[in-house]
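Q: Please design a sequence for this.
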């Protein structure tokens, strides 16, 4: 399943579950850095909104508030299992009236009273059998020690396959048989760019998007090392996001790019960024587009999307350059559109289709998807 489809799917699974016996636990398996954990966080926010509850990213300081009005909240509790002790999951043994009992931790008490989502991250990377055994009880019995979770708590575990992590291990058959196992595929370059735009708006450097579209056949979005261990960085969606945010702030030295994306991809991106494109000059003299090399043309396509967004009330100065790009290849015009935020894109397409109705055919897939909003 594509990461872009995962949140909606898990929301459907959550809504289909009823009670402690009917609510299935989920195991998400996929490469590191593709957004599994982040999707769970977004899912929790989505479910909170759907249930009319206030979302809380749990910490102990909020426990008193949650327990005072548990029905008011949807609690997201995130455990990185590689950092846990068994007592973090099951509770602390205490002597009470001459007998030992497990006193539940605050997070467990909160999830026993409130709806929520419990994320057990890095489950395949845990090296301690006692921690794995403790995690099993959470998944098997929906309990932390003797404290049973609320019926509306969903449990999601995340992990990597052995080929994706040198420390990843197989899980026992009985555990797998008690979970819905989903293999999560990386996002496409476009879905990653759409997520960046929806999350950060214009506050990220779209030249990374232009670079990955330019070399899309090379699959630079994610390249997990073939060796089981490494000290060199490698590109995954998470590191591309960090690189794009830093570049937007002017931090784009070769050390930064190599340190985030590895030597091969980092140095190639650095060379791509040296392409000298004057978008204002090309808007004035669009015939110059044909003289650019391929790197420059990809760079122009994305830069023009940014320019149009800034001049969305009157983008007609860009039309001659759009015509020149369209004559060269439909791909450049599509890239310009897909680099824009949805609101700006809708406004722009209204202007563009009025200027040249035939562009509806060139951009047919986009036009069909946004037909009602463009018409409105």
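A: Design:
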């Amino acid at each position: 399943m594509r990461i872009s489809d995962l949140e909606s799917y898990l929301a459907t699974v959550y809504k289909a579950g009823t009670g402690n016996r009917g609510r299935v636990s989920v195991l998400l398996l996929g490469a590191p850095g593709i957004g599994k954990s982040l999707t769970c966080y977004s899912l929790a926010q989505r479910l909170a909104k759907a249930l009319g509850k206030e979302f809380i990213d749990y910490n102990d300081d909020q426990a008193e508030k949650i327990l005072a009005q548990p029905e008011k909240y949807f609690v997201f509790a995130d455990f990185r299992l590689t950092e846990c002790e068994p007592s973090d999951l099951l509770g602390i043994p205490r002597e009470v009236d001459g007998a030992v009992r497990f006193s539940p931790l605050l997070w467990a008490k909160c999830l026993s009273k409130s709806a929520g989502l419990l994320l057990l991250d890095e489950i395949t990377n845990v090296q301690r059998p006692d921690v794995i055994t403790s995690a099993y009880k959470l998944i098997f019995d929906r309990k932390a020690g003797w404290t049973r979770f609320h019926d509306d708590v969903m449990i999601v575990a995340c992990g990597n396959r052995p080929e994706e992590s040198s420390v990843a291990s197989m899980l026992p058959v009985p555990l797998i048989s008690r979970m819905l196992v989903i293999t999560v595929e990386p996002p496409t370059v476009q879905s990653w760019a759409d997520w960046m735009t929806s999350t950060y708006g214009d506050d990220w450097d779209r030249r990374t998007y232009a670079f990955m579209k330019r070399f899309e056949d090379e699959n630079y979005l994610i390249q997990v090392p073939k060796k089981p261990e490494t000290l060199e960085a490698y590109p995954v969606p998470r590191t591309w996001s960090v690189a794009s945010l830093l570049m937007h702030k002017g931090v784009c030295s070769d050390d930064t790019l190599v340190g985030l994306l590895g030597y091969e991809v980092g140095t190639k991106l650095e060379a791509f960024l040296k392409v000298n494109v004057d978008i204002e000059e090309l808007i004035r003299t669009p015939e110059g587009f044909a003289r650019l090399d391929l790197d420059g043309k990809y760079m122009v396509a994305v830069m023009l999307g940014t320019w149009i967004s800034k001049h969305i009330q009157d983008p007609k100065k860009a039309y001659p350059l759009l015509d020149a790009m369209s004559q060269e290849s439909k791909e450049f015009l599509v890239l310009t559109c897909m680099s824009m935020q949805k609101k700006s894109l809708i406004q722009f397409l209204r202007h563009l289709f009025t200027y040249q109705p035939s562009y509806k055919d060139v951009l047919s897939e986009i036009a069909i998807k946004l037909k009602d909003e463009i018409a409105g």
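Q: Thanks. Anything notable?
A: The first helix runs from residue 3 to 16. The chain has a mean pLDDT of 90.
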